[in-house]
Specification:
Blueprint: H1 2-42, H2 44-52, H3 59-65, E1 72-77, H4 84-94, E2 98-104, E3 114-117, H5 122-131, E4 139-141, E5 151-155, H6 165-170
Parallel strand pairs: 1-2, 1-5, 3-4
Antiparallel strand pairs: 3-5
Amino acid sequence: MVTRRRSLESAHVQKWLLNLVIFCLSVVIIGFIFSMVSRYASNRTKVDLATTGKFELTPEDLLLEKPFLDIKIEVLNGCGVNGLAHKFSNYLRKEGFDVLYVGNADRLNYEKTLILNRSSDIKKCNEVVKALKLNEKRIINRPQSGYRVDVSIILGKDYKDLAVYRDVLSISEEF
């Protein structure tokens, strides 16, 4: 009789636990459904615009919006300040340049910021110099065939004196 009673209590506990699990899963599923419906309702205009195809960008439109996408840049930290190259790369991306690589230079004791022209097209380098509001005297021609970037920027210890430094600091980390 005792074993039969224990088995009944055990079956009752199992049913209760199973019902509890089903209830919890139901609450989670209802939460997901509610989240999906509220997200769709709040973004309805965005979804409608995306599905109608009214604002499809052509390559020409993209180049008008970001005119320097064909200029490939690497930003190198030449002074040892943590995160400096990353901050400048965010600024350059915001300006429409294609930053392919961010890292450290061959050494970390550059006094002046330098612009290395890696391609045969000096116009690309001049656009970068103009965006950074630098003097063209900072350009050093180092064309290398097969190099993946057009321009290399080595940030020196004078980075705080650059005209765009305040703009660089104001850029958020979203880029």
